[in-house]
Amino acid sequence: MLLIKNGRVLDPASGTDAALDILLDGDSIARIAEPTGARDRNEAPARAEEFDATGMIVAPGFIDLHCHLREPGGESSETIETGTRAAARGGFTAVCPMPNTRPVNDNASVTRSIVERAAAAASTRVWPIGAASTGSRGEGLSEIAAMQKAGIVAVSDDGKPIATAKLLRQVMEYCQALALPVIDHCEDPSLFAGAVMREGRQSVRLGLTGMPAAAESIAVGRDVQIAELTGCHLHVAHLSARASLELVRAAKQRGLRVSCEVTPHHFTLTDEDVIYDTHFKMNPPLGSQEDRAALIEGLSDGTVDAIATDHAPHEPASKQVEFDRAPFGVTGFETALALALELVHAGRISLSRMVELFTSGPARVLGLTRRIAAGEPGDLTLFSTDRAWTFNSEDSASKSRNTPFHNRKFRGAPMATIVAGRVVYRREA
Amino acid sequence: MQRLRHLLGTESLTAEQITFLLDEAKPFQEFQRHPLKKLATLRGKTVALAFFEPSTRTRISFATSASRLGADTMNLQAETSSLKKGESLLDTVRTLDAMKPDCIAMRHSSSGAAAFVASHLDIPVINAGDGMHEHPTQALLDALTIRDRRGSLAGLNVTIVGDILHSRVARSNLHLLAKFGCRFTLCGPAMWLPREFEGLLGDIPVRRTADIDEALQGADVIIVLRVQQERMHEPALPLDEYILLYQLTAERLRRAREGALVLHPGPMIRGLEIDPAVADGPQSCVLEQVTNGLAIRMALLFLMIGTGTESGAPKGTSHAAD
Fold first, then answer.
1. CB contact under 8 A, B112 and A206
2. Are residues B105 and B180 both part of a single domain?
3. Which terminus of chain A is more solvent-facing, meaning fewer CB atoms within 10 Å of its CB: N or C?
4. What is the pLDDT of chain B when averaged over all its residues?
5. pTM of the predicted model, to two decimals?
């Protein structure tokens, strides 16, 4: 048993914001109570281990809807063990790895191997996402139902869009019946072709091929219409453009089952930050100042459902190349919360909204609930809103170092991560 | 004047630095006319020429400049390099660096490649063209050519015609000439002329037009860009269409100021982007540009890797022969 004492419990889903103690028993939350004073010490189970959360926020366990753990096949960049250790250091209690591994997670045996490996080595829960099409090649449906039985929580051909409107329709019709969300990496391949960053003043200045925002929003428009046609839940991955956000907002207003996620790098940086440093190269690329402002607006007003990291590790050598030859992707687990807190400190989103975006928001995308209540899973994220620290990528638990936030100074940090009643990460004092 | 650490582009140069470089190039211009073209100024120095993209004129210009200064050269060409065998750019240039050259002049098809290499090596890097980004020695030799003919760079109306989007020559010229108060008109097919060019120089206005007659009106200097035929397929534009709308003909040239200068970075394709009558006409500076390329590159090498104890740039004939 573990007693989390003296913390401020902040759980938007149950409307809780109070100084409460939480008792975890086994892998679940056993009890939530007013802080135990001397008078009722007898009530506290004598054998409970205590965790002093003084000065900390105690939130439901954070969920990351979008990451790449690279196992199987890319173990030189990341493994389920190292990736989830980094996730735990970032305050995440559950992460959803995308299927673009080698082999692609497009059948139940790959899914099972990921689930088994996670059971043996992961610090957090691992909820795999299965490929929508075989090999994510965009030709025919993968074994979605079998993968669902093995543990996938959604499907996606992430890294690229679900190839055609027709295939997307089939996938969505099929997943509608299975109650699985379809997550799409929205991109028009012909407009994207050759691009290494967002098209704009900076791409023209640097002489790098740019992608117009429309390359994303055209695909979002397609997807929203197929979602309407099929009634299936569409989740837009790593949304980066104002025009895409407006399409999602309009779809929601019309009552469609459309959700979206935004990454910390997209709400923090812009294309103006790209100066040939491959640690600023990811797909979708960093957008304009206008896009960034729109994304923050969307985070605040509820158009955006979740903050997702798109943690995409690449081993150092692969990023130490010419900008146009470097792979897309940046790591993100360990900086996500601190970057979101920057928005809170700047008064752009409230603290409880931020917690939603990491907890009940992503849970709802997966058809789950996430709240602090007796009987719920013992997953908690404890963080400080004002702990000063500097992120040093050399200290990262990830196998990779490809972050644009090396040496960034932060205010606020994950302090402890509890998964199934067990402390999997605790920040050193 | 502080020694230039690297030359990666003209964007980061100041007007003072540019003027200094052009002034330093003057004696080297004279020198090219000398019967014995060999100095001892950089004797014992080695210039690495790393050309990861096919190039003839720029590579020969650098090699000749180094040689005329008495320096040795190390040559790496893409065709023969280990890049074909899968070695990374970084490993390749580190290998070159281990042979202890005093500087490296490099060309590469990736924008930012020179800056990337400069951030990993201790020796000076001269960008001899990086992708669509910059080609600073070209802009410097263009500036030298223009200044010679016009006496000054100040306040000129400069028109650049062609595939602006993909042109490192255009970018380097814009950044350089902007520092001398030039006014710019960019002209070409719209898909090669994104509106973002209007903001490239900050507050300095850049006019865009798809109409060459309008673009040439009042021009003091016309820079004609090479038509990269390999790009014609990319947003498909028929060559004949380009010739029809954008070829610099003698008739069109009459719209420019009298005696307007015509520059072309080469290689030039007669009958495509330029009418032979213009290419060979009195307003054409094409061959001067080539000769000035030597003067600029010699001045640069001298300033960047000279030890400072040499007798310096040639004055008259006394240092010419070695």
1. yes
2. no
3. C
4. 92
5. 0.94
Token pair, residue A308, equals 């997702």
Is the confidence at residue A269, as pLDDT, over 90? yes
Domain limits, chain A: 2-58+376-385+411-426, 60-365
- SS3 at position A424: strand
B11, B113, B196 ranked by CB distance to A204: nearest: B196
> Out of A21, A157, A271, A310, which one is annotated catalytic?
A310
- Please count the structural domains in chain B: 2
Q: What is the CATH number of the domain that holds B185?
A: 3.40.50.1370
Active site residue A184: no
* Cis geometry, peptide bond prior to residue A12 (ω within 30 degrees of 0): no
Q: What is the pLDDT of residue B321?
A: 37
Instruction: Report yes or no: A288 at the B interface, CB cutoff 8 Å.
Output: no
Residue B44 near chain A (CB below 8 Å): no
Residue from the list A199, A201, A324 with its beta carbon closest to the beta carbon of B111: A324
Check: CB of residue B292 under 8 Å from CB of residue B29: yes
Q: Which two tokens stand for residue A251?
A: 């779809």
Annotation: CATH topology of A2-58+376-385+411-426? Urease, subunit C; domain 1 (2.30.40)
DSSP string, A345-369: HTTSS-HHHHHHHHTHHHHHHTT--
Q: Find which of B132, B231, B234 to mutate to test the A interface (most A CBs within 10 Å of its CB).
A: B132
Best interface-test mutation with A: which of B110, B169, B200 has the largest number of A CBs within 10 A? B110
Range of the domain at B232: 136-287
Rounded-to-integer distance, Cα B77 and Cα B55, Å: 9
Residue A118 Cα distances to A112, A143, A334, B128, angstroms: 10, 21, 19, 51
pLDDT at residue B297, rounded to an integer: 98
